[in-house]
Amino acid sequence: MNRRTAALAAVTVLLMGGLAVPEAAADNGPGGPSVGEVAAAQAAARAAGARVTAVEGQLALAQSAEAAMDVRVETAVEAYNGAMVAQQRAAAKAAATSVAARGADTAERAARDAVGQLAAEQYSDGGPPLLAGFAGLLAARDPHAAELAAEAAQGVSEQARQALQQAAATAAAARGADAAARQASTAAAAATAKVAAARTDAQQQLAAQQAQVAALDAQHTTLLSGLASAQQVALQLTEARAQALAAQAARLVALAKQQASAPPAPPAPRPGDIRNVLAFARSALGLPYVWGGAGPQNYDCSGLTMRAWQRAGVELPHFAADQYADSHPLTYRQLQPGDLVFWSHDGSPQGIYHVALYTGDDSIIEAPRTGDVVKTASLWIMGTPDFYARP
């Protein structure tokens, strides 16, 4: 059985048993943290838990987005790598076709030079009628035109004509391939630049997402620490209130037993005597507390009550526990002005350490402690009194 259960069980026993619980003890509360304080601490712990749960949800979403962004970056990097390979291949092909085009141009020029040489030789042998045909052949850049010019050039060997035709066609094809390769290389470079920009954008977004995850993770750590503190405070207050309830229940049981066993209240003292007792106590207000003091310039707690009751013709010892022993026990309900109230450090008459004079309306006059003065105070200033008595 925990403390809270024990406390509630004890109070239930009192009520079910029909014992009258002193009103002061019931109204004064158990002490320790209040119900509101415990509830507030528990609410704070729940709120801290809700904040942790909310951030955990945000963190999970951010981590999921980070994972997706990481895949996007990896894809962009691989796309960039592929584009670089394609660009390098296109550049290599363009370089090769450029070399081939230059070689074809050189071969074509050599073929033309050979035909020109042959034409010159035939001119020297055959005279001017062949010169125009050779001139047309040498001026032709198109394979078909070159063929016509070659046919017109009588005396040019078939072998020379075919060689020139082949060289011209090869050079034209090489120039076309070179132009296409350069265009492909330019397109590959542009594609690589575009993919590189996409890769950079993905990497920047990943970095931003990673920063968000780090910030949420740090916030999560801070909130977890706050949650642990809030839960600890709530637990401590809950346990403290349970202990206070258990202690109150024990006091209620003791007070109920005391009430059940207490003898009938003694007759009330004569009003004139009580007026003298209270008047004396009030006349001492403001005088300093001195241990062992019994007036007229200073008092301790039992010295003040002893001198006050002397004004009613009652002699009490200068010792709080003996003053209780020499008086008639009362309950809170039986208290009247002039009666004595006592506090005990262990709840027993032998443990009484302080006495004060009851003045009515839950007020007392007391000589409290060294450094203080005789003064009025609440009956509950030191907690619920343990004993009440009438000299």
Automatic annotation (TrEMBL):
Gene3D superfamilies from the UniProt entry: endopeptidase domain like (from Nostoc punctiforme)
Assigned keywords, A-Z: Hydrolase, Protease, Signal, Thiol protease
Signal sequence residues: 1-26
Domain (NlpC/P60) ranges: 271-391
GO molecular function: cysteine-type peptidase activity
GO BP: any one term: proteolysis
InterPro entries on file: NLP_P60_dom, Papain-like_cys_pep_sf, Peptidase_C40
UniProt xrefs under Pfam families: NLPC_P60
Family that this chain belongs to: Belongs to the peptidase C40 family.
Descriptive protein name: NlpC/P60 domain-containing protein
Organism: Streptacidiphilus pinicola
